[in-house]
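Task card 7
Instruction: Convert sequence to structure tokens.
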Amino acid sequence: MFDLIGDIHGHADTLKALLQRLGYREGGAARVDSGAPGVSASSVDCWRHPSRTAIFVGDFVDRGPGIAETLAIVRGMVEAGAAKAVIGNHEINALAFAVERDDRPGAYCRAHTERNLKIHAATLSQLSVTARAEALAWFRTLPPSLELGGLRVVHACWDDAALAIVRRVIEREGGALTDRAIRELHRQGTPEFEAMEVVLKGPEVPLPEGIVVADNEGHRRRMIRARWFAPPSEWTYAGLVFPSSSLVPATEIPQQVRPRLPYYPVDAPPVFFGHYWMPAEQAPSLLAPNVACLDWSVARGGRLVAYRWDGERTLEPSRLAWVEAAPQPAPMRATRTMPA
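Output:
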């Protein structure tokens, strides 16, 4: 059966602690380069369970201090058949950050702004040129979703219509996120761009004119993430925002800007996703009998969470397992930066 694991964001020590708790053990060299100085591919062990398979919901990079080791563990497990994984928004952002636009020479599908450089800083400083290239090549192979005999996995939002569009773009490229696919998915104003945004970042709603809300990292946002898996209790910004936030006004959302939300059916297979930074101060819980968010803010000192699925259609809170985020050393000044 499957152990579904939430967003890691380079917190390799916490990942290893969770794998140990779930009964996985190191054994058998992985066929990947960790990117860490002095660590060869043959010395990076693959984590395995004797009877279970891990599934990762994406967001392996950015923020944490152990990005190279995280990639070595996850990729090693996937390539050895001990795990499966879907792509997260931070992986596709990394690809877009490296792929030039075809309509503006010297510009990238993800702009090299100060804000974006800050978000990617940990990845850019921790990976060598070679390791970054290998990571990007692996990201291109990751699917946007998985459907495995009774469960579904996606990074941010399960929307059949949006997933069909994203899959069509990837299938046209032989199943890979080629440069052409990245460009197509990042051409703003197109159905492909909107579909990619929904699947990997979730539906969003613009805030009223003049209202700005700071996110978890202090970035000023004029959009809020929407609670997509169930109808809102009321069509207000406070009633729709996910996770709930006291900073968002209880103003009614005008009809013309209300998003189309998929409202995940109560009789659909269980769906697992990450992305949403569930409150670090709260104990992990389920969102619905068939809906589980596994991102519990490990990158903010929260928890790395897993769900141990054994085929049940109704999810059970007792099957959630987690470890607290491992203490992190004081940040060090980066000594190496990555070229675009």
